[in-house]
Batch of 2 targets.
Target 1
Amino acid sequence: MSSYNAVKIMVDVQNLNVAFGNKKIIHDVSFSVKKGEIIGMFGISGAGKTTIIRVLTCQIEKKNWTGNVKVSDLTPAKKKNHSKILANIGYVPQLETLNLYFDFKPMVNVDVFASNYGMNKKEAKEIARSLFTILDIPEDTWDKSLKKMSGGEKKRVSMALGLIHRPEILFLDEPTTGVDASKRYDILSYLKKLNRQLNTTMFIITHDLEAALICDKVAILREGKLLEFEVPQKLILSLPSEGLVVRFIIEGLNNDKINIIKKFVSVQKIIRVGNEMLEVLMNNFEESLPKLIQYMMEKGIKINSMSRDVATFRRYFQLRIQEEEEKEKILM
Amino acid sequence: MNITGLIRKEFGRIKSDKRTLILLFFIPFILILIFGLTTGGGPTAFFNAAIISRDEISCKGDFSSDSDEYDQIFISIVENNCSAFGLYKSFNSTNELEYNYSIEACKELLKNELIDVFIVLPANFSESVKNEVDPVLIYYVDGSDLNAVNSIEVAIQEPIALFRIETDLLTNFTTMAPYMEFDVPFWESQILNYAIPILLSMIIIGTTMNLTSLSIVAEGPLPRMLLTPAAKNEVIASKLIAYSVIMVLQSTEIFVMTAFFGLYCLGSLFDFYLSLIVIGFCGISMGLFISAISTTEQAANQLYIMMFIIITLFSGQFISLAPEIRPIIYFLPLSHATPLITEITLKGFSINLKYVLSLGLISLIFISLAYIAYRFKKVEV
């Protein structure tokens, strides 16, 4: 994060509840975001990520939500604040078709959006040039048809449009969706670059758990409840043995073998990854690992290979969601 | 917030939508071209006629010597002087038996398409002419050919006009249209000018409705635009302004085209031009309404077709409506647009404020409904 020193709270959400009719979508969600932070909003479909963002971007009427919400010190609860909030935020939708006029050139798109913020053409073009440069959009494409640009270039133009009015907060909906694997990291790098250079607070709504790599904090949501809102590294360190994980490839891996391993006293969590791979988290990692290996051999479990690693945010997310599901099962 | 930016954006979108633009400017061009070229400057076709004279009065005894038997003069004119008519056969039927025979013979000729019309001169024809009492001229045409019916109705004025000149009389004829003084002279582009009121109204309403019917529903980034300080009313206003400018250009094209192909306008040309714009604005409002209430492009297209059919069929211009549903006419733009143009071009009246206000009211209703629908439309990104 570029600005840990900044203390200005850009988004403050306290006890947010959202309901449409009798259907409650968001349950008592609270968090606050400082200037310059990148927040990753993670959760499986229907978790409520988009709903929270819609409250913050004035898209949901006040009658449908309760709680204290402030965006740039203004509450979206009051309609008169909407244009001020909207002038201060940027939004990059998931699909470029929702953000770009494909029949126009990038610079014409810039003109269209900038005019909505009362910016003059010259000012908008200057900002666009600097944004396009940061985002490595080739200069020879700036005045060519958007239709001729590649998917990645369109995505970057879309991001630039979200920032054209220099908003304090930028919301990005699935910025890496539809982008091939090799380009996903590029997109994330560009976001980090923009964040560093412009000190823009960013909200990234995504299913792409790799996005946590650039996030200062992550929000994990499930069925409208905020399970975690924390620095991703801290979450990983909260795992047994600070997230140290042993990865086994086991011949003929099946549920019986997994249940045998689960019975080993230090084992805390087991994640099956593919057909024969297993990741195990346990207490007192260094001491317990040799004992676990011996235990497995005694039980006739043949280990083909083994490696140790630190858990990724992906693993943390999986485990956290599993934990919630198990809790729910017990309650049922 | 700067509405000019939104307007510029709308112009850009219109410019890039080549298909709709071609439709908008090409359809009027082609239709007027076809009508203009096919009608030329005089009567539209040549009709073979048969004439049955029942004229019983011999003028020689009862009238002055210079007054010949007027039925023969009329027959001679049709046979020798008309550009629109040729005489196929004439019958002199002074008694009932002969008359019945002639009628049957003429019906047979009409049925076999050997003639297009047969004219009956009544028993008191010469007497009526001489006494300057309106003579009745009855003509029978093939009712299955609507174009011929209309054309003959117009063309029949030619022998009548020539007959008046020949006889130097000012006798009126009851076959003439009730408002004969508002007819297009036969040397003008008659079909074009008779068609203009309904033709232009339909072209303008149809194409302008089409122009705007997708303007909201098919604009992908529009919901995103609402996450800027742009307000919904500004979005609607910018569309209305931009599309109205395009519509004025279309009206200008139509005005020039119709003038080129022989527009017959007894009234003010400015009033005529203004009428086109008022009608076009109504079409734009209706298109915006369609776009605002539609959830998909397909739904908008379907609604457009449905509305166009309704405003055409129920306008009272094509089919006569039952009395109990006649009030519906007043809510449809075509019902006001057609008489608005007719009064200016054919009757020479100045622009009728009643029709203008009706069209304005319809526009206002549709714009308001479009705004309300768009205001409450669930728009989420």
Target 2
Amino acid sequence: MNLDYGNASSLHSYGQIAKNELIKARTKIATLIGVAPLSLILTSSGSESNNTVVRTFENCPIFVSAIEHPSVLKPAETYGSPCVKIPVSQEGIIDLVFLKAKLEETIRKTPKTKILVSVMLANNEVGTIEPIKKIAALIKELRTKHRTKIYFHTDATQAVGKISVDVKTLGVDYLTFTGHKLGAPVGVAALYSRLGAPLKPLILGGAQESHRRAGTSNVLLACAFAKACELAKKNLEKYQKVEILRDYLKEGIKQKIKSQIVITPKNSLPNLLCVSFPASEGESTQLYLDLAGFEVSTGSACASGDLEPSHVLMAMFHDAEIAHGSVRFSLGPKTTKKEIDLLLENLPPIIEKIQDLSTLNKENPNVRK
Amino acid sequence: MSENNANPFAYTEIVKDHFLNPRNFIMGDEKEWQSDGEGIVGNPVCGDQMLVKIRVKNGKIEDIGWKTYGCASAIASTSALSELAKGQTLEDADKITAKEICDFLGGLPEHKFHCSVLGHQALHKAIQNYLEKTS
């Protein structure tokens, strides 16, 4: 594009060039998830997209899974009246029976209130893919049966670009995704909001984004996001190879390390593997691996800013030891088998050393050696 | 995760050294490490636990061994404590503070200091345990 662009809201020619670029970019971004360009709002981050949806339902009942990203959980806890957390299984899958019962109870008590349900498409820590179509069907059923205004949001930040995401098939009213997960610079994201579904702007001011998000349009970032979306579509099939490597890593760990708990379930994102190593505290594992040239993350309390273990792993297992011992491996299209083999060579002695240093029993970390 | 990505080397070179090459730790089964007193502190639920064992001769800590479950800061600080305490009289060893351990390591991140520097408390318990046994 022409870098001498103007303000996309201006009528002069530089403004019009920018406006046209913005239209083209929005169309490309919308195409990735199969929606109309006008139903897409460009924002600054996934957190902003999530906050915008949740805050629209201020003082209404808000149902969220217990393993949502903090940018859904915190606003839901702050603005939901009440905020209901849906429990998950040890695989991280939400309890649909609980959700249905609680929704029906809420509709019975307050039949006229608007309700929001927000469940992520795939979890960022363990990779679990949630049954979004089933939830959408349940919501549709309740909507028809009780003539209630229930709306459904999914945070697809982790899923878009890794698996095929099509809004029409999913049946959601709102969907969040972000540019940097696709390779665009940090600072640009999108929110799909079905035309007709309520949406209160989080940022008030000008008429940008069809009055749904004020602030001068960031055309440059929108173009970068659009390019990243085009590439993401092409890259999607590469994730089949990533999944094969991920499974190879999983089997390798199971074979080479006796005491481990594979946390990532079968139906998961192709690029993630979360494993907990009993008696091997996650930050220690992370640092040893870092020095060996492998960057991983952990759900251990020691590695978090607030010294709390991962809320995702706690919701799945109710066991701090599993969270403390957890390590997340993230793979990408550029990851090679050679790198995985090198990791499988380096990892067992590291875990063994940390387990030897530990006061805990690796066979049963809840008791002392 | 919970995007818990701590900056790996927010730690000093001395911490790194003690973390990678811990001094005086008990290799293998700790029960086989004969001692005159032992103490344990911390809680695995919080993510840190330290065991300290001592061998005492003529009122001095002749040898010290330990195990630690926890983060780099916890491992390095127990290792540092073992270096500080070895060869000291029981009285002097019992006076070692968290700050001394922290200074020995060239400093620790603020939020790690309170939760992970616990080795001196385990040593205190080990000394108490020895005194109880011998009195």
